[in-house]
């Protein structure tokens, strides 16, 4: 296969079609299908976490009807990096793939662990930047890009119609913590030879200038550790390995021991160390159980829970419910992550609980402790000017970001003898590349599938979803009134059952469940009782465990807490 002439589809070549099965006009669910003849390859398989208006839903993944229609033709799954919005749906996609899963070592390690938890098997092919693999009529080339974690790649798909370049998530970090630079040279080479279509990350197109380097947050952490006499607890994403490395380096500089708190932090730190992506001097790391054994001024904790998740380590620490880590006046909590839209209330509750303990909470509003992993406008312009594609499709963002990126492409590439043609297809719209150019030729089934534990409900049809729950395990609605000042129970808790029947004494089981609610609330701290988010989650977890043990079934539990 040869590269096409600059900007021109190859005359007489077979047509190539691309369709987004998720990820257009939304953050998450990233998955792109690229097809030629009887061969389809997938780029990423991302998930999305539900909003508060989807009770009982644990995860959202793309509708896979398109893959069912192409059964036996999907020959590979190609992964750009290991973030959940790009790999979270892999366990659900792999059964539809008749071929290997390609990814870098770190990405494969993350995904292999996920598949093991789901008891799903896959054949992995580990790749490195500049590797090229043959998949039917495609040659897939992997290119180094920088992001908020190591081992991220863009994908150049050499097709019969020309080169389709998918950036994945990126920013252009000139000083990445691991020294692995963005492969601007290869991007420029591909641009000089001719790129048919560029699909590029639009997340931060509204931000002028360039995104800060990962190592730039070091000064902010140095200021904090230099002025804090107590413990420092840093809340961050467990997948932010670059941030983890910077914090570790600063902790070593200030002679502090580091404890990883929370399952995600512990597992990811061990995995990153094993693969050489995390450098930790001997004697630096201590266990969470040993934190209390060291003077507060000698300890730094890296904890999960930066988004206010009810069961995460930081949330438990905030309400004094963690077995080993306690905060006291003089300590400092640092939230080194952006608030994902929709999580602001949960994060605010955690901050309030921490403040009640006389502990300062530092965010990026006052200190330089967080930078984005996505390129800003000037970085997006640079990629456009290097690649100079014939067709441009902005991806990774809501419509306003994609529309702004489309305008930006027009500004950068709108002149000259062969100006860029910008396409902004929706999820499910098929873009066909052939010798005549690019056109939107059809629409395939796309949507969202809601995952509730091990059960699946159809997207967009909540009535059908509820009926399926009722037909299987039913729905329980525990109702309890709590005094918002004292946290005391007002009246008697009640459990309302719909579609849930037990024999021989259903009323007795529901009465036991109501008594369990009272016991759960009485055993909770005042802060838990007066925080609706926390107490709902506590009730939900305990009731599901109780009914599973007593009846062998897993009803959907939707707690209702009335604040009086």
Report what the structure shows.
The chain has 564 residues and is an alpha/beta fold. The protein has three domains: 273 residues, Metallo-beta-lactamase, Chain A; 149 residues, Rossmann fold (3-Layer(aba) Sandwich); 102 residues, Ubiquitin-like (UB roll), CATH 3.10.20. The protein contains 16 helices and 28 strands. The strands form five sheets. Strands 7-6-5-3-2-1-21-22 form an eight-stranded mixed beta sheet. The longest helix is centred in the C-terminal third of the chain and has 20 residues. The termini are far apart. 47% of the residues are buried. The N terminus is likely disordered.
List the helices and strands and how they pair.
Layout: E1 16-22, E2 31-36, E3 39-43, E4 59-62, H1 65-69, E5 74-78, H2 84-87, H3 90-93, E6 101-103, H4 105-118, E7 124-126, E8 132-135, E9 138-145, E10 152-159, E11 162-166, H5 184-193, E12 197-201, H6 218-227, E13 232-235, H7 241-253, E14 257-261, H8 263-274, E15 285-286, E16 299-303, H9 313-318, E17 332-335, H10 344-356, E18 360-362, H11 377-387, E19 391-395, H12 399-413, E20 421-422, E21 429-434, E22 437-443, E23 448-452, E24 455-458, H13 462-472, E25 475-482, E26 489-498, H14 506-523, H15 526-529, H16 532-551, E27 556-557, E28 560-563
Parallel strand pairs: 3-5, 5-6, 6-7, 11-12, 12-19, 13-16, 13-17, 14-15, 14-16, 17-18, 19-20, 25-27, 25-28
Antiparallel strand pairs: 1-2, 1-21, 2-3, 4-23, 8-9, 9-10, 10-11, 21-22, 23-24, 25-26
